[in-house]
Amino acid sequence: MDLMRIDASDNIYRYYRMELMPGLFGDWSLVREWGRIGQPGQVRVDWYPSEIEAKNARFDIQMQKAKRGYE
Protein backbone atom coordinates (compact mmCIF):
# COMPACT_ATOMS: atom_id res chain seq x y z
CA MET A 1 0.00 0.00 0.00
CA ASP A 2 1.46 3.33 -1.06
CA LEU A 3 0.40 6.66 0.39
CA MET A 4 1.52 10.06 -0.85
CA ARG A 5 1.35 13.61 0.43
CA ILE A 6 2.04 16.38 -2.05
CA ASP A 7 1.75 20.07 -1.26
CA ALA A 8 3.76 22.11 -3.76
CA SER A 9 3.15 25.40 -1.96
CA ASP A 10 4.97 24.07 1.14
CA ASN A 11 7.48 21.96 -0.85
CA ILE A 12 6.11 18.72 0.63
CA TYR A 13 6.60 15.64 -1.54
CA ARG A 14 6.39 12.62 0.78
CA TYR A 15 5.56 8.92 0.47
CA TYR A 16 4.70 6.21 2.96
CA ARG A 17 4.74 2.53 1.92
CA MET A 18 3.47 -0.43 3.96
CA GLU A 19 3.66 -4.15 3.20
CA LEU A 20 2.67 -7.25 5.14
CA MET A 21 5.03 -10.22 4.94
CA PRO A 22 4.79 -13.66 6.57
CA GLY A 23 7.61 -14.84 8.80
CA LEU A 24 9.14 -18.31 8.99
CA PHE A 25 7.46 -19.27 12.25
CA GLY A 26 3.84 -18.25 11.68
CA ASP A 27 4.38 -14.62 12.66
CA TRP A 28 3.82 -11.61 10.40
CA SER A 29 5.79 -8.45 9.79
CA LEU A 30 4.65 -4.99 8.82
CA VAL A 31 7.38 -3.39 6.73
CA ARG A 32 7.15 0.40 6.48
CA GLU A 33 9.19 2.77 4.35
CA TRP A 34 8.84 6.55 4.26
CA GLY A 35 10.66 9.57 2.91
CA ARG A 36 10.78 12.18 0.17
CA ILE A 37 9.50 11.11 -3.25
CA GLY A 38 12.43 10.16 -5.48
CA GLN A 39 14.81 9.52 -2.58
CA PRO A 40 15.58 6.38 -0.58
CA GLY A 41 13.63 6.37 2.64
CA GLN A 42 13.82 5.01 6.14
CA VAL A 43 12.64 1.46 6.80
CA ARG A 44 11.09 -0.05 9.90
CA VAL A 45 9.94 -3.64 10.49
CA ASP A 46 7.49 -4.52 13.27
CA TRP A 47 6.57 -8.14 14.06
CA TYR A 48 3.12 -9.41 15.06
CA PRO A 49 2.03 -12.88 16.22
CA SER A 50 -0.82 -13.15 13.69
CA GLU A 51 -1.86 -11.79 10.32
CA ILE A 52 -4.97 -10.14 11.74
CA GLU A 53 -2.92 -8.16 14.27
CA ALA A 54 -0.56 -7.01 11.53
CA LYS A 55 -3.52 -5.95 9.36
CA ASN A 56 -5.05 -4.04 12.27
CA ALA A 57 -1.76 -2.23 12.88
CA ARG A 58 -1.52 -1.34 9.18
CA PHE A 59 -5.09 0.02 9.24
CA ASP A 60 -4.37 2.12 12.36
CA ILE A 61 -1.26 3.62 10.74
CA GLN A 62 -3.17 4.26 7.51
CA MET A 63 -5.83 6.21 9.44
CA GLN A 64 -3.14 8.25 11.24
CA LYS A 65 -1.51 9.12 7.93
CA ALA A 66 -4.87 10.06 6.37
CA LYS A 67 -5.38 12.60 9.16
CA ARG A 68 -2.01 14.13 8.23
CA GLY A 69 -2.95 14.53 4.57
CA TYR A 70 -1.66 11.32 2.97
CA GLU A 71 -3.79 9.82 0.21
UniProtKB/TrEMBL annotation:
The UniProt record lists the keyword Transcription regulation = no
Which parts of the sequence belong to the WGR domain?
Answer: 1-71
Tell me the SMART domains matching this sequence: WGR
**Any one GO molecular function term:** DNA binding
User: One Pfam family, short name please?
Assistant: WGR
Q: List UniProt keywords, sorted A-Z.
A: DNA-binding
Q: Tell me the domain of life.
A: Bacteria
Q: What is this protein called?
A: WGR domain-containing protein, predicted DNA-binding domain in MolR
